[in-house]
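Hi C.,

You asked whether I'd gotten around to modeling the 417-residue construct. I have! Everything is below, sequence then structure, no commentary in between.
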Amino acid sequence: MNKFTQWKPSFRAFVRSNRYFPRFNYPAKTALSVPKGITITELLVGTMISAILINLAYWGFAWNRQLYLNDAARNDASQTLKTVFNIVGPTIQQAGEGLDGSFPTILIRPYPIDPPNPNPPNLNPPTFPTFNSEITIRRLISAVKLPICRAVTAGNQTEIFIVDRTITTFPGCDLTDSDNDSWPDTLQQWKNYRNTNGGTVRAFIYDGIGQGEFLNYTGENFYNNLNSSITPIANPTTVETTVSAASLRVTGTLANNYTAGSSAQLLLIEERKYRLGCSDTSIADSSCPREQLQKLQLIINNQPAVDLVNKVGQFTVTATLRQDLTSTTNAKFICWAIPAISGTQTGTPTCNNDPPTTTTAIRLTNPYTWSQVDSINVTVKPKPVSSSNSSLSMSTINTLNNLQETQQFFPRNILNF
């Protein structure tokens, strides 16, 4: 090499560094020098990390699943309460449409059994109530009201006269036949309703002062002035075919007498009952264990019960009544049973002051009438949850078992009277 050859400064520095710092001059690695496999320590560390991650994922999933189950159970219970109120509430608000203030429009009784002692049940929140109820709600479905033209006595019934042309002193008992078909106009409307509802319907006989009963209305009878049975003929030409009296054919037994020409009348009434039925249809409600009374049922005009809502743990109804004590004072009472007829309550008293001021049941100050109803109070609880067979958390189980809601509904008497 030419001694006069000049190297770049960077190259000279490289040569010097390799001469004086040989430890930085590593040999090239080959494939044979790379270690194979992993150590037992690395395996254990990886296994521990994997186990931690899997456990975190599992507990995260389980926690989210538990949250979902708890929320779903609470939502289901809340929806049950809401559904009950949405069904029963509007019916209560329609109660008594077209009826007078003394009509037995709303009836309440413990169902299927009375509270276990003659003293009032606990009527104070939050533990109130402690029993189930049945509420009966009635409303008028036809504006046509038929008079009672011949006296009706207690016992089995076959017919009730609603037209009698031989009597002129009883209002409504004369024949009104605007279309000249020999049918009383009012009876024609009742017949049309009967025929469109299966041929037999229930008619309510009412004395006008709070007392009444149901009969089965099956048809019509017509009589001439000789009291012989006839068939009405349009534009009759002989007296034998002229309707002089008309009656409803009925079946049933009456417990009371009804005076002709008084305020007594026949009405077409729709009756709805709400109560809890047994989830086991082979057991009568009266014998059903309390925890199996969980189906809200609707019974219309004594037809077979229809199941509406399941998983209802309690259904209790009370009525808040306001009665005039004097011309300037009144009092409120809370009743867990209100009678079917007006007059002083008989038997075990079923009311207390509102709010309760005594541990003894009391009688109403004045005779009960429907127009005194201030509000109908409906309390609902969901079906109890057992901790032994539930996947819910204990806090959620306690919340559901303590869940209870009461709503007040105001029937039409608030507007009518």
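If it helps when you're writing up: The first strand starts at residue 106 and ends at 110.

Thanks,
B.
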